[in-house]
């Protein structure tokens, strides 16, 4: 919808809203002014009235979320949880719902698979990505202008002809470099970094790839090792810019565990971020070590352990909530939820409900699912606050 | 006699489609020769990056196929039918 101001020759000023159906949105709609002429049948008005209408795409309330993850793009679990929190259909095959559009940043590869092999460059390397285009297009979408976005085909490894992306309410850019370029970084309203430790990464990749013909333990290891230098040089440093980091580590509850099934997950929340109030346990700003299992709650081995406290992370003041262990039963989940504060949930048990709704998603019984869901609620809260704050400004202008 | 000590190799029930699997396999096979001269060269690293990309893509295809398994979908919607009742002894 466009918000338009109508000026008549009598200098009457009224605000009207002209609904435009989304199918009529034009590519590169740059017209800012439309002039209408009406002929009045009323004989009291002698001349034709001229009206000047200036329109601004008021749906340029697109908020942009950046998600840095090395899991390859597409509908990752995190995205599906996020879509679900916003009320979309997480099982739909398209990445576009009514509210949210997800852009996989691989689409901004400047070199396709063959090109990268010729130049001896990985996808992690900035030289394989067009940050100028990324910035231009994300900025355009944020300003309410549709763009023709390139498509990187993961199956063929080629760059396909572009597709039209219309500005949604929420734009999520997901990939390896959402926070690498400073201009793109400044466009982000919120950013998340998914940090999987090397041991967990190895265990997950074994699970993923061992069924694959051609792979062996050695090849999986070699692939991780070969990518490490570029990863540490270009991807890892983005952690310092993220508003929230979800760090996934091996458990400390089982000595020498190398199965990677029980996880220790830390939600590292930056302090002082606008519209973002970190989640805490019991007493904000204090340090808490909490084992919920005991008289009120029975847990099976190895149990659950929580930690909360302020820390310094990459030069930033942060608050960390940490969960080590696994949920086995519904009542464990709800018990934990009832003791967490500042969740930005809309009703008691919303986190539990979301976790149960997607019990088949990976991580639904541990900190990864818990913190991804919580971050989803935080993003919803951020979105609503931004929308509310922007809605106040036009009212202010008409009063002036 | 049970426990004769024979080893059974269980084949994975769901392997990715042939085409994608071939790509991963070929890519892995090409790695040693690209890395022979210099294991930290751009060429070597790029091949392993390609292996990673292809492995990720293949696993996504596998997951999508799993999601569209008609039996799985039937089961999801019909948990109350006789077929799916479980009895705890």
UniProtKB/TrEMBL annotation, chain A:
Domain of life: Eukaryota
Record's protein name: Uncharacterized protein
Source organism per UniProt: Trifolium pratense (Red clover)
From TrEMBL, chain B:
Classification via Pfam families: CP12
Biological processes annotated in GO: negative regulation of reductive pentose-phosphate cycle
Alphabetical list of InterPro entries matching this protein: CP12-like (IPR039314), CP12_dom (IPR003823)
Region (Disordered): 1-28
Ranges for domain CP12: 21-89
Domain of life: Eukaryota
Cellular compartments per GO CC: chloroplast
The protein's name: Calvin cycle protein cp12 chloroplastic-like
Organism: Trifolium pratense
Phylogenetic classification of the source organism: Eukaryota, Viridiplantae, Streptophyta, Embryophyta, Tracheophyta
């Amino acid at each position: 919808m466009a918000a338009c101001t109508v000026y008549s020759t009598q200098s009457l000023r009224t605000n009207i809203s002209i609904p435009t159906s989304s199918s009529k949105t034009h590519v590169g709609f740059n017209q800012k002014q439309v002039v209408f002429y009406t002929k009045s049948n009323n004989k009291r008005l002698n001349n034709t009235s001229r009206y000047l209408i200036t329109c601004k795409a008021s749906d340029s309330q697109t908020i942009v979320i950046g998600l840095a993850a090395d899991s390859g793009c597409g509908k990752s679990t995190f995205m599906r949880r996020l879509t679900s929190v916003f009320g979309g259909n997480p099982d739909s095959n398209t990445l576009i719902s009514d509210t949210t559009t997800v852009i996989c940043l691989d689409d901004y590869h400047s070199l396709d698979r063959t090109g990268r092999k010729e130049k001896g460059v990985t996808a992690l390397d900035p030289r394989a990505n067009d940050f100028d285009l990324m910035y231009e297009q994300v900025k355009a979408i944020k300003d309410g202008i549709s763009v023709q976005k390139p498509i990187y085909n993961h199956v063929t490894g080629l760059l396909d002809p572009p597709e039209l992306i219309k500005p949604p309410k929420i734009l999520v850019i997901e990939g390896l470099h959402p926070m690498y370029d400073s201009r793109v970084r400044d466009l982000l309203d919120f950013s998340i970094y998914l940090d999987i430790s090397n041991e967990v990464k190895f265990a997950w990749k074994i699970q993923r790839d061992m069924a694959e013909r051609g792979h062996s333990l050695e090849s999986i290891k070699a692939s991780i090792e070969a990518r490490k230098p570029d990863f540490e040089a270009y991807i890892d440093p983005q952690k310092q810019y993220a508003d929230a980091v979800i760090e996934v580590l091996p458990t400390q509850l089982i000595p020498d565990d190398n199965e990677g099934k029980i996880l220790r997950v830390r939600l590292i929340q930056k302090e002082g971020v606008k519209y973002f109030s970190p989640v805490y346990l019991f007493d904000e700003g204090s340090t808490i070590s909490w084992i919920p299992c005991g008289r009120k709650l029975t847990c099976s081995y190895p149990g659950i352990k929580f930690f909360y406290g302020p820390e310094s992370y990459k030069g930033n003041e942060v608050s960390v909530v940490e969960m080590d262990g696994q949920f086995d039963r519904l009542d464990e989940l709800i018990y934990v939820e009832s003791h967490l504060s500042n969740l930005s949930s809309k009703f008691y048990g919303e986190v539990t409900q979301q976790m149960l709704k997607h019990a088949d998603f990976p991580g639904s019984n541990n900190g990864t699912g818990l913190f991804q869901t919580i971050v989803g609620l935080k993003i919803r809260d951020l979105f609503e606050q931004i929308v509310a704050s922007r809605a106040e400004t036009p009212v202010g202008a008409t009063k002036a | 006699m049970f426990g004769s000590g024979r080893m059974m190799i269980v084949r994975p029930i769901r392997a990715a489609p042939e085409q994608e699997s071939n790509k991963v396999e070929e890519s892995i096979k090409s790695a040693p020769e690209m890395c022979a001269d210099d294991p930290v060269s751009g060429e070597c690293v790029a091949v392993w990056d390609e292996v990673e990309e292809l492995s990720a893509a293949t696993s996504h295809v596998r997951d999508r196929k799993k999601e569209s398994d008609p039996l799985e979908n039937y089961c999801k919607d019909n948990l109350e039918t006789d077929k799916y009742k479980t009895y705890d002894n």
